Amino acid sequence: MTGVAFLLDALVAALLAATIGFAFVLNRRLGVWRREKSAFEKLIGEFNTAAARAETGLAKGQALRDDLAYLVERGAQVADRLATQTRPRALVADDTVSAAKGGTNHAVSPGPRSAAERDLAKALSGLR
């Protein structure tokens, strides 16, 4: 029986040695994790800050988008109103010139335009 007891004791000793080795490796890995935990927490904090800034920027961007959409809508309304106000005058002027020249329809040249009028004309022709 001493031989069997000796083999069992040797087996238990080998298992204990393996357990001690595993515990040593695990302790080292946990030590590395504990040391890196503060760096990881700092990284998470920076990520949260960046996410908050991104959300703020997104909200500002959406507000600007809404403002621009409003301005474009208002600009289109003003352009339509200007177009309807200027068309009848041009048609009346064309008819007057046409009647004065014997019925032929010629373009009316209202004279020199200001830079603002030229810019407005370019913008209106770009919308068509």
Write structural notes for this entry.
The chain has 128 residues and is mostly helical. 88% of the residues lie in helices and 0% in strands. It has one domain (8-127). The protein has two helices and no strands.
The fraction of residues assigned to DSSP E strands is: under 5%
Question: How many beta-strand segments?
Answer: 0
Largest sheet: none
Please state the CA-atom Rg, rounded to the nearest Å. Answer: 43 Å
Count the domains: 1
**Span of the ends, CA to CA:** 107 Å
Shape: rod-shaped
Bin the helical content.
Answer: over 70%
Mean pLDDT: 83
Number of helices: 2
Helix-strand makeup class = mainly alpha
Poorly predicted tracts of residues: 104-108
> SSE string, helix = H, strand = E?
HH
Topology:
Blueprint: H1 2-100, H2 115-127
Features:
mainly alpha, 128 residues, 2 helices
Provide a brief overview of the structure.
The protein has 128 residues and is an all-alpha fold.
